[in-house]
């Protein structure tokens, strides 16, 4: 009798379906120099999932489970952790990472496991360019979007530019894209300077830039592409580049980095996001909800994380579930969704998200301890001729 009861229970257990879950792996540099970027990205991802599911964290009755993995900004570790997420954790989709170098190491893993990786916020063009594969989508902007937007803001005839960037994929891809874009406006890039990612003393680099630009005539700018600490803009500005007729220019950044912008009122550039610029219901929700949860406005990478979270939910809904990778890819190619920046769209050819950018001018405003990027004008998707991968 007892044996038959156990047998009946075993049969029932085998017959009863396991509760379905949608498993999302967030593989990102939770610790290390980009820790601030990572926290914003994760907070934004969770808020995007919440927003797109109406607060339920479920899609068609299936709960979303987010698995966090810390790459520590190490490419080999990022590669191993993504394999672990797909293989051991059976993640349907992965999101991340922060670093372009880590992202490039992770791309082949997505192809090997035939699972989708949504890159957010790593920027290097090569991620959706020469190193791309069909399992890679990117909600973050790429180097070309940064570059073309900044070229629109800064370029023109009789403009000569020097660049300063970090010596790795983000910096070199960024300069290459910027150089190509700004020279189309009639400007010239006359000098390029690259320094290690952890540089804190910019004296030697600045002196080389000054000497190479000293005899150049006309409108001269030093365009800085930088991620993380070190404050190159503030330190070089303290060396008085105006002695050589040189103006500092740069793109947008997180709020903490904007403190250096306060020393440069009137500086222009292009930015991916500043919480007061976009006017749409998604951004209104993000700003209000972020203030409720954290007591601060959302930052640069919070918006990106939210965009990725919304894209995940919309893709799974469109595909009819998360289990079938081919159905997800079909649904995501050309997918358009509402983000804090307005509409975004995955381009079918390379899965890069097309999105607006913002030409800004720095202002000093009462009550804010940073230089505020005030909108000059929105740079529309159709104004940016973003190269398609080779």
UniProtKB/TrEMBL annotation:
Single biological process term from Gene Ontology: amino acid transport
Domain Leucine-binding protein residues, every copy: 21-362
Keywords: Amino-acid transport, Signal, Transport
Keyword Transport annotated: yes
Taxonomy, superkingdom: Bacteria
Family annotation (InterPro entries): BCAA_transport, Leu-bd, Peripla_BP_I
Keyword Plastid: no
Signal peptide: 1-20
Database matches in SUPFAM superfamilies: Periplasmic binding protein-like I
Family to which this protein belongs: Belongs to the leucine-binding protein family.
Protein's UniProt name: Branched-chain amino acid ABC transporter periplasmic branched-chain amino acid-binding protein
Species name: Mameliella alba
Lineage start: Bacteria, Pseudomonadati, Pseudomonadota, Alphaproteobacteria, Rhodobacterales
